[in-house]
UniProtKB/TrEMBL annotation:
Source domain of life: Eukaryota
Protein's UniProt name: Uncharacterized protein
Length: 228
């Protein structure tokens, strides 16, 4: 919105026939919107149901640009690769809906929309999985999209050269394979850790049983000696 003297006004035009809503709108914090207006990278967790619910349940009505998202619980502040499918879909839809209000060019919005559509339509995307289940292939694709979004915004912000502003929507399968390898290594490391913890627990249990058995044997031996 532009005022009569040509000044750019960030607040939107109002609908004079629309009353105050019964419930507060589910919108991210002001600092998140400020970051979007700058065209910078924003993690998707800011647009998940849990994050928005936590923000809207707050009684703090301070409208400064302080980052209220920093107060969100750690189990809400996830990396993109840690989101489940439902969180990913909800977050991307909400972010796309907010990008026009953040002043993003339509061609960039279209690129983002195509990018996320291509992620979910990629041949390795497991389409039979439930919304709250994340297949390793999903994790690889979500890690890929997170890393590539970060890199794209970093390059766009660090250099005026338009040549680096490539099309995110074109999936690079070579780079995706690298992300897949990272996820596979993480899964393998988690399995090794789980096995080690289970093995340690079993060994501890066995040692405890041996100590108890030895104690009972010693008690029985002492009892027999006293009887003599």
């Amino acid at each position: 919105m532009t005022t009569s003297n040509g000044t750019q006004f960030l607040l939107p035009s109002i609908n004079l026939g629309l009353s105050v809503p019964d419930k507060p709108p589910r919108v991210p914090s002001a600092s998140v919107m400020k970051t979007l207006r700058k065209g910078d990278y924003v993690p998707l967790y800011h647009f998940t149901n849990r994050a928005l619910s936590a923000l809207n349940e707050s009684t703090d009505l301070d409208l400064t640009l302080e980052d209220k998202s920093a107060s969100l619980p750690s189990n809400i502040r996830k990396t993109d690769a840690e989101l489940d499918l439902r969180e990913f879909r909800d977050a991307t839809e909400r972010m796309l809906a907010l990008l026009p209000y953040a002043g993003w060019p339509q061609e960039i919005i279209d690129m983002y929309r195509d990018f996320w559509a291509n992620i979910q339509n990629h041949p390795t995307w497991e389409k039979r999985a439930l919304g709250f289940v994340t297949h390793p292939n999903h994790k690889a694709l979500l890690l890929y999209q997170d890393e590539q979004r970060r890199r794209w915004h970093l390059l766009c912000g660090s250099t005026p050269n338009s040549a680096v502003r490539y099309n995110l929507a074109i999936i690079n399968d070579t780079v995706l394979q690298q992300a897949t390898a990272v996820i596979q290594e993480q899964i393998q490391a988690a399995e090794i850790k789980e096995w080690a913890e289970a093995h340690s627990a079993k060994t501890y249990q066995e040692i405890t049983q041996e100590i108890e058995q030895e104690f009972r044997s010693q008690t029985h031996y002492n009892h027999k000696r006293r009887r003599r």
